[in-house]
Sequence to fold (310 residues):
Amino acid sequence: MTANCPVCSGPGAVIRHLGADEIARGLNAVFGAPPPAGAVPGDYDIVRCADCALVYADPMRAGGAAFYDWLTSFPKYHAQGRWEWARIKNVLAAEARPLRLLELGAGQGDFLATLKDLPQVTAQGIDLSESSVKKAQARGLDVRRDTLEQVITKAAGTYDAVVLSHVLEHVATPGALMGAVKNLLAPKGRILFSVPYSPMSREYLQDDVMNLPPHHMTRWNIQALDGLARVLGLDLETWMPKAKAPWKRALKHTCDKVRGEGRVRGLARLPVVLANWGDFRRILADHRNRERVGGQMAADTVLVSLKKQT
Ligand SMILES: [Zn+2]
Fold:
């Protein structure tokens, strides 16, 4: 029996099976080392909701401490500054009123620190990692080691903006999480969150193990985001950066396909592409056909606003 959609409860259809051995091989290829035994919780089915098109894992069993202890030991896992932080600041500034903001999963406060030049925003954050919270506090930021439930008890209905940066795709109960986050919103408040836009452009060759369980439990596109907005009764708005030109992606992905991920760079790509012209043409056509969102080619991440009408 396939699990129903974790956002809209619609029926799901299995797209494919993903074995724990396949996940471990994929992670080994990305990080150059295999995950320790037991870090990958097990096998999954990858399922698409027939109603909202959300793609999700069955079972919704996210990676645990063993998985993330291993993953976070690699420097390449950690993100630097993200384009969506600047866009969030623009959205907040455009509101032109005092705002109370909460970031869920604030980490060491890298995003909250960027808000210091918006004096009308009173920013707080929560995170479960003791060491991250201490680092954020040492930077003078209001970050606490609270759970979402604790914040709801203390401060339901009081936040004008709740920010989640690349959190939603990791959680096993996305519908329930966003329902709880909605409880934090003041009138006219909004949730601002970013997720990968799936399939990501590099997934034309094959699905990216880092965009699959036990790392990413859900895969989002505009239809699934619409479904989430409908379930929550909130107004949807989305932003994306300009996507990379199809020919640039095709150059890279042709070389990745022929020589392996990231092996050939820069001008050295040209002879590889010339020698594999048929592959290049086909991959280029795939990229040119990439989904359009709001009239522009879909990028690999999307910033989403879900706003209360009143
Ligand atoms: Zn659904």
Summary: The chain has three domains: 12-76, 82-204+212-242+294-307, 246-289. Residues 246-259 form the longest helix (14 residues). The mean pLDDT is 94. Residues 5, 7-8, 10, 49, 51-52, 54, 227 surround zinc ion (CB under 6 Å).
